[in-house]
Amino acid sequence: MTASGRWALCWLIELGNKRETLAFQPPTQNTDLDDILELNMSVSDQAWLDLFRDKTNKETIRAFPDDELGQHPDWKERWNKWQAAALNVIKPDGQQDALAKHKLKDITTEKEAAIRPPVQRHAAEATATNEHMQKAAPTENLLNDSALQQKLNTALYGDKTWSDAPSDESKLFKGAATAAGPKSACEGSTQNKKAVTVTAALLCICTRQNGAGSNEGNACEYVTGTTQTWPGSSNYPAAAAISEAVKLCDLQTKHHITADTLATKLLHITKLIMRVNGAATFGKTTKANAREAKTAACV
């Protein structure tokens, strides 16, 4: 295994613990549509505004009245948006404040009536466009920074809330260790694999085996070698070994990430997966009796 395996895994680990943010931030709300709906509400006639007023407290917005407006199911779907648009408009001086916001402070009653139909059409078109976009790309399908960070931490550490460096190996590996050394933990099929996180994979290639005649630690740190060893008993690496492996990666630099950059990082890993005789190994293999050194290493 050459240092390329360590680098490929580290390129992912370096994104953990909130070090990455999306290069493009999805808007928290459609402010353009909100403004259009508010403008439409501010030039609406009094009868329309009164539909949104609570019967008792006239300055309070009411929930959709099924008994009164149940014959308009499409209104119910849009009521929340309309409520938000009417919220400030129905307050004392709210209509005038909204008109002033849209540079219509001194509009006459006649001009207000004249612009009402085109504003209503504009609001209807904007609403229809927004609804079409929501169906084509639902908001819940868009990742924000928090959701992305949780997904990455789960893949890296087995827990969406973990930080560097995890001290509990139980979430890095699946199930209990069944034998001494890395072989039983790092080899397996899709159904019975134990190394189920990126950090576990890093431990598998960068942690020196206890009692080994050669120094696997040089495979990832060829200057001094890693010092922690994989336990000789039926256990996974302890906190010190986990910390040492993770600290081989850059845990300081912040990153702005896109789908393309993440795909590139994953491609570096998949290129290191080699299929041999119906199995797959991570990294390069050799038939020679190699030993870990500055120039070469075995899987």
UniProtKB/TrEMBL annotation:
It holds the Pfam family VSG_B. InterPro entries: Trypano_VSG_B_N_dom (IPR025932). The keyword Glycoprotein applies. It is found in: Cell membrane. It is a lipid-anchor; GPI-anchor. One of its GO terms (cellular component) is plasma membrane. It comes from the Eukaryota. VSG forms a coat on the surface of the parasite. The trypanosome evades the immune response of the host by expressing a series of antigenically distinct VSGs from an estimated 1000 VSG genes. This is Variant surface glycoprotein. It comes from Trypanosoma brucei.
